[in-house]
Amino acid sequence: MRATRPWGAGPGRRRTATGGPALPLAELAVLVTATGAGRLEIRTPFDGSVLGTVPRSDIDDVAEAIRRARAAQVAWAARSPRSRAEVMHRFARLVLDRRDSVLDLIQLESGKSRLDALEEVLDASRTAAHYAHAAPDLLRPQRRAGAVPVLTRTLEVRSPKGVVGVISPWNYPFTLAVSDAVPALLAGNGVVLKPDSRTPFAALLGVSLLRAAGLPGDLLQVVVGPGAELGAPIIDGVDHVMFTGSTATGRLVASRCATRLVDVSAELGGKNPLIVLADADLRSAAIGAVRAAFASAGQLCIGVERIYVEQSVHRAFLERFLAVVARMRLGVGLAWDLDMGTLVSARQLERVSDLVADAVARGATVLAGGRPRPDLAPWYYEPTVLADVPDDARLTRTEAFGPVVSVQPVADLDEAVALANASDYGLSASVWTSGRRGEAVARRLEVGTVNVNEAYAAAWASHAAPMGGWKDSGMGRRHGVEGLLKFTESRTIATQRLLPLEPPPGRPGAARAFAAGMTPVIRLLDRFR
Ligand code: NAD
């Protein structure tokens, strides 16, 4: 593993990588709905220094944000889906036009590499473009078969829910803040967004680009502050909650939503497996496994933490995999030539270090990495490969959410599938094999997305198909039809024509005659359905 010069020295370091103007942090900070004098310091994981400050919202600010979004939503919902989609088409282009400044800010706030930040830019732009194309059709009233053909005309109509609360995490601070807000807005809702307090600037940049694309000012509100304080008033005031974060917090959020009978979509944690079968292209599998395990320094919900390799190719795969890990360029900075950035915080570093120490104390072998690198950045941890992780190690079942992966040989496909499924989580998986066998293997895995001969991005970037978790990895889906329609209430409007569906009251024998006439009609309808 090659280390590069730590980032941080020299003046003008907050200028964009292309030498453009300094990032407009003060302009972004004013987008927060907050009335008090309190401010939060935002530090860059590159060197721990203060990047800027943002106003801190309180409970009253949340109420005000919901009130403003609700007021603005009325006019927005009255616009046609096509007119709302025009805003999102412009946003999709704007994100690409401003690519370099967006990348700089994502990197400075999260500590990730430029390539990892690029995924966020592409995802946000592609999600917006996808839904801008798809939403007008998906939201159009749909004719449905009526109670009695010809006599009953039935329409399914979609209406916005009102105001959607989006609570987003720090690990993909740009795209996870805006990419769920986009379909919620397209569906005609207002949005109150609460990004993680560690990474509000990337979310605010997304909001400023949406406004620059033509989104009405008050429609998308941002509040910033601790989730434990602002989460409850958001949930208590909105009409749908879109939560992305840990399973523990997701449970709290979902149970509070349940008491209000408000829908929640929860995109939660994972302990994702990668399976290498004997017929796989081992070179591609090794490269894919490195990307899967170490993208965003492992702080990726769909990243891989467990690798199972068929015994006959275990040694050959491991050699290739460790060789690619050894070639990784480590460090922080805005240049393109680094493969892995840093963990986001001291808390993340402690969590990862503790899990590795526990596994090693119980008998795991360190094949690569296994230590912090404060010489690269204060919370940096090396890409780490472990073998022989025992079943009683906490790492076996706990999501590390860091650059740590275990590799284990398996006798055959059945054992690989059994181990892959032996988890409380069910978010994502990756399978490496040849021919069309991958799809059959994928169907046996208890997860929401499976990538065949790809690390994680193929399914993620298939925006027309749903994405989400089974088991403790969540409820509801983003992307696909579900990712838009969940932000709507359906309404069925059935108009009866020519003949009534029931006999009139007060006529002797009418009910009996109705039953005698209707029964064969129902039989016929069933046959010709
Ligand atoms: P977290 O649950 O601590 O925080 C996520 C968000 O929830 C933050 O905005 C936080 O302020 C807020 N929050 C905290 N307490 C809250 C409360 N009581 N009520 C309402 N909101 C509250 O998550 P984290 O540990 O910071 O993020 C990492 C986790 O997120 C990992 O488990 C990762 O797998 C998961 N994640 C999942 C996905 C996905 O799409 N499935 C994507 C990214 C991250």
Mean pLDDT: 95
Biggest beta-sheet profile = 7 strands, mixed
Mind telling me the C-alpha Rg?
A: 26 Å
What general outline do the C-alpha atoms trace?
globular
Strand order of the largest sheet: 14-15-16-12-11-18-19
Into which percentage range does the β-strand content fall? Answer: 15-25%
End-to-end CA span: 64 Å
Bound molecules: nicotinamide-adenine-dinucleotide
Q: Report low-confidence residues grouped into runs of 5 or more.
A: 3-13
Query: Structural class, from helix and strand content?
Result: alpha/beta
Supply the number of helical segments.
18
Helix content percent band: 40-55%
**How many strands appear in the DSSP assignment?**
22
How would you characterize the overall build of this protein?
- The chain has 529 residues and is α/β, with parallel strands linked by helices.
- It is 41% helix and 19% strand.
- It contains 18 helices and 22 strands.
- Strands 14-15-16-12-11-18-19 form a 7-stranded mixed β-sheet, sandwiched between helices. Strands 8-7-6-9-10-21 form a 6-stranded mixed β-sheet, sandwiched between helices.
- The longest helix is centred in the first third of the chain and has 26 residues, at 114-139.
- The protein is globular, with a radius of gyration of 26 Å.
- It starts with a strand and ends with a helix.
- Mean pLDDT is 95; it is low at 3-13.
- Nicotinamide-adenine-dinucleotide is lined by residues 167-172, 176, 194, 196-197, 227-228, 231, 244-246, 249, 252-253, 267-270, 301, 399, 401, 427, 469, 474.
